[in-house]
Amino acid sequence: MATKNQSSVNRWKIVSLVFIALFAILLIVTLVRFRHPGPEMTSATPEQMESAKAVVEQSLQADGYNVADYKVEAGSEAGHMGDAKKEVIRVTAENDTSRHFYLVDVETGKVVLHDSSERYGWMAEMKPLHEQPGGWFRGKPR
């Protein structure tokens, strides 16, 4: 017969084994996800990049923006959006006061995602950090 003290010890042994097993499962899941991060990016062809830029310029014009004021750049890589089979290209359109971010579907030529941000006042006058004197490094060069 087990005494009360021994049954208490056995209960804690079981609890500790359960927590060790949970930790091992969590570790295995983390390693599997780290090992298989997701779909790889492929190089976009120049035709795909130009087509995506044209779609973004049309979208800007349809929204009432002057396309000549914007610098439109298409990314050189195409990737899949989440688990979907849609292959998209990242395109950015930027001028002095606003930045637009687009994801354009390669096959259909439609805008899948559009996000924009605008800068006003003192924010519009600021230059990006890499264009400021001293660049990313703020200290004195050695």
Counting H and I runs of at least 4 residues, what is the number of helices? 3
Main structural class = alpha+beta
> What is the average of the pLDDT values?
82
- Estimate the strand proportion: 25-35%
Counting structural domains, the number is 2
Strand order of the largest sheet: 1-2-3-4-5
Order of helices and strands: HEHEEEEH
Radius of gyration equals 27 Å
Low-confidence stretches: none
Largest sheet: 5 strands, antiparallel
* Gross CATH architecture of the largest domain: Roll
CATH class of the largest domain: Alpha Beta
Give the end-to-end Cα distance, rounded to a whole number of Å.
77 Å
Number of strands: 5
Describe the structure.
- The chain has helices at 4-35, 46-62, 122-125, and strands spanning 42-43, 71-80, 87-94, 98-105, 111-118.
- It has 142 residues and is of the alpha+beta class.
- The protein folds into two domains: 1-37; 42-130, Nuclear Transport Factor 2, Chain: A.
- Strands 1-2-3-4-5 form a five-stranded antiparallel β-sheet, with helices on one face.
- It is elongated, with a radius of gyration of 27 Å.
- The relative contact order is 0.10.
